[in-house]
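Morning, I've got a small favour to ask if you have a moment. Here's the protein in full, and shout if anything looks odd to you:
***
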Amino acid sequence: MRTRARRGVTLIELVVVIALMSIIAGVTVPALSSLDRREPTAVDIVSTLLRETRATAIEQGRSVVLTIDPATARYWLDVPDTTGVLALPGGATLMAPTPRVHVRFAATGEVDAEPFFVREHDLATPVVFDRWSGEARGGR
């Protein structure tokens, strides 16, 4: 008696393969996500402050001026009780042509900023602004 050749997979085989793939994914995904965890750079810290200041201006519907003292890394906004010190990584500093840097965010998110640099590992990175969107980033 001849038997027919089997075509396709059975339901049990399919369930076993899906279970194995689930176990492998459950083990590898947490390991891969931990690879992206890195210490923030000085540029990341400054960019975060600028992004938060811009958000404050938009939320309050008014212009907000951020003042940064490059020598001490202290900053303050013209919003009550908003001062602090940037927690820059070791060896990182801020540089500017003036003693204080002023960054003014309009209620629309637009920015008017004085130039300044973040120096880290002997590399001075300018903080670049998109004037109309107000987005800030470190770059050339």
